[in-house]
């Protein structure tokens, strides 16, 4: 029997950064890779999703 598990970690990395630095809570933030490489965004917080 095959099992598939889906874990939705919506905004997880952004939530960790906002927990560690509460000043980031109300401003748009995005978490991603190095800008000099591909610069792929892993996640963003809800204020950033308006963009």
From TrEMBL:
Regions that span the bilayer: none
Domain UmuC per the UniProt entry, residue ranges: 4-51
Biological processes, Gene Ontology terms: DNA repair; error-prone translesion synthesis; SOS response
Cellular component GO terms, alphabetical: cytosol
A Pfam cross-reference name: IMS
PANTHER family assigned: DNA POLYMERASE KAPPA, DNA REPAIR POLYMERASE UMUC / TRANSFERASE FAMILY MEMBER
InterPro entries the UniProt entry points to: DNA/RNA_pol_sf, DNA_polymerase-Y, Rev_trsase/Diguanyl_cyclase, UmuC
Enzyme Commission code(s) on record: 2.7.7.7
Protein name, per record: DNA polymerase IV
Recorded GO MF terms: DNA-directed DNA polymerase activity
Keywords: Nucleotidyltransferase, Transferase
PROSITE patterns attached to this UniProt entry: UMUC
Family: Belongs to the DNA polymerase type-Y family.
